[in-house]
């Protein structure tokens, strides 16, 4: 199976649960999963293979979890690109999201008592992270101020074991126009989604990386704006495993 033929099947499978959440939920999921390269790259690069316990902060309606579960089903059915690593087999997919409307859409998509998925209303600045193997924050860190970012990142580091992964996407505030373009769009979308016009708290890429290294993560950064004129970067932050 080639990636080219496989991806439409994965997008169909991952979007399907959102049909029960209504027109918006379904088309939002489809649009997001088909146009945003980070979902594909997460699997293709095997970044979370062999991880079991996931926490997604600012998870929206749970598109990432639907993607991981769909990947699992297709892999189990033998429908998987020959050159991709196996997807993770999650035991626990926990998410926190500020907006009630997204949480309600997630509940309709996954059901209230899903054996693996639990998406709850909560502010990432307050909720208990528990113990997890992977933490993700996709395009949500810049909604909280720098002091809160520092605190959330410190608590993420504490929640992860040796070998644990924190995956995030941030904008590079040092990148000029592409960064500002993304922020303008973000303001508009966030306003339409029912937030007050938000202040956004960016940092230069080098400052993100320095901050994460100070917390004793190893950090890889890779541009993650494919097809869009933005300055988005995926940061893969690993907790060093010094046991072996
Ligand atoms: C750009 S959306 C991304 C949603 C999701 N991560 C995705 O990739 O589809 C950012 C999300 O973060 C949520 N958010 C913002 N601040 C938050 C906070 N302090 N705690 C939890 N969620 C937050 C917003 O409500 C929004 O749903």
Compact summary:
The protein is an alpha/beta fold. The protein is built from 8 helices and 7 strands; from the N terminus they run αααβαβαββαβααββ. β6 (218-223) and β7 form a beta hairpin.
Please supply descriptive tags for the structure shown above.
244 residues, alpha/beta, 17% strand, binds S-adenosylmethionine
Question: What's the topology here?
Answer:
Blueprint (H helix, E strand, L loop, with lengths): L2 H13 L7 H13 L1 H8 L8 E5 L5 H14 L15 E6 L2 H11 L6 E5 L12 E5 L7 H14 L5 E7 L5 H16 L12 H10 L3 E6 L8 E7 L6
Bound molecules: S-adenosylmethionine.
Molecular structure report:
The structure is a single chain. This protein is α/β, with parallel strands linked by helices. The chain has two domains: 1-34 and 57-109, no CATH class; 139-244, Vaccinia Virus protein VP39 (Rossmann fold), CATH 3.40.50.150. It is 41% helix and 17% strand. It contains eight helices and seven strands, in the order αααβαβαββαβααββ. The protein has helices spanning 3-15, 23-35, 37-44, 63-76, 100-110, 146-159, 177-192, 205-214; strands at 53-57, 92-97, 117-121, 134-138, 165-171, 218-223, 232-238. Strands 3-2-1-4-5-7-6 form a seven-stranded mixed β-sheet, with helices on both faces. Helix 4 (63-76) links the parallel strand 1 (53-57) and strand 2. It is globular and about 45 Å long. The model has no long low-confidence stretch (mean pLDDT 93). It binds S-adenosylmethionine. S-adenosylmethionine binds at residues 32, 57-60, 63, 96-99, 102, 123-125, 138-140, 143-144.
